[in-house]
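User: Sequence recovery, please. Input:
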């Protein structure tokens, strides 16, 4: 049984190493397109701080979880992520999705409201 466990562990590391190598190669050669990852998709394609904070928080917590797992190699279960990290991750995603929802609703509301109201866009000159 010890041999089977060792073989499975080696196979998993080979698989993960291979996937990492393939993804890294495709990122470096441009086969995976990352050109618009940190820009808004609406019109001007400006830099998006919300996308940056979402990516940084997600990668930081993923790295923290990886180091938790690597720090105790003899554990029989996956490590537990502290509640504070889960709140940080959920808050980060909630803030990003809340901004997207606000932008979507503001755009729909602007299309629904008539533009002839005082102070709203162009006025009808009849």
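Assistant: Recovered sequence (126 residues):
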């Amino acid at each position: 049984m010890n041999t089977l466990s060792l073989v499975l562990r080696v196979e998993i590391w080979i698989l993960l190493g291979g996937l990492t190598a393939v993804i890294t190669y495709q990122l470096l050669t441009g086969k995976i397109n990352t050109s618009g990852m940190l820009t808004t998709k609406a019109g001007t394609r400006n830099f998006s701080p919300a996308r940056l904070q979402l990516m940084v928080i997600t990668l930081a917590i993923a790295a923290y979880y990886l180091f938790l797992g690597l720090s105790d190699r003899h554990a029989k279960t996956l490590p537990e992520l502290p509640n504070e990290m889960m709140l940080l991750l959920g808050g980060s995603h909630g803030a990003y999705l809340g901004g997207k929802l606000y932008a979507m609703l503001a755009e729909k509301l602007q299309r629904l409201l008539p533009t002839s109201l005082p102070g709203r866009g162009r006025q009808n000159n009849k």
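The chain has a mean pLDDT of 86.
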